[in-house]
Write the structure tokens for this entry.
Amino acid sequence: MKIAVICANGKAGKLIVKEAVERNLDVTSVVRGDNQTAAQNVLKKDLFDLTTADLNGFDVVIDAFGAWTEDVLPQHSTSLKHLCDILSGTDIRLLVVGGAGSLYVNPEHTVQVSDGPDFPAMFLPLAKAQGKALAELRKRNDVKWTFISPAADFQADGERTGKYILAGEELTLNANGESVISYADYAIAMIDEATKGNHIQQRISVVAE
């Protein structure tokens, strides 16, 4: 299996690459600058400059793009649209590192985590930008996409336990009543989905056991 990880130098991207390499998968890091990942194969190119030809031959493309400041938050939508456009009509699967703010908190799927009164104001613009990108992605039936939301407490330096719970569109709590997962365990879930998953055109979520 050939996997490309876009924006691989980011915190999530590095751990996703590491997980894939440790499973002896054929991994290519797509980075703008010098490769800082465990991948031996490197494609040095900006996400927005990628073409269909660049991604031909890959089985799975993992989009680990992240934008945090308000001026670039719209790139969550524009970057995903670009990737969808160049993968349109192909059999290449697109797995997206998503956010938790767009997870639902009611069975009717009308209220999202980011709608809650206790949602941190500083994260609201990011949650809304990621939610908008997901809403636009849902309209694409020409791409084999999967959007993977982490738990609400997404811990960059959390430990790798090797265990997680696979859930769906709704915010899911573990046995301790927590919605938490480390980047390392999220990376496991991402590579599991890449190698074994079939959640085509679906949003799934993961939480630590």
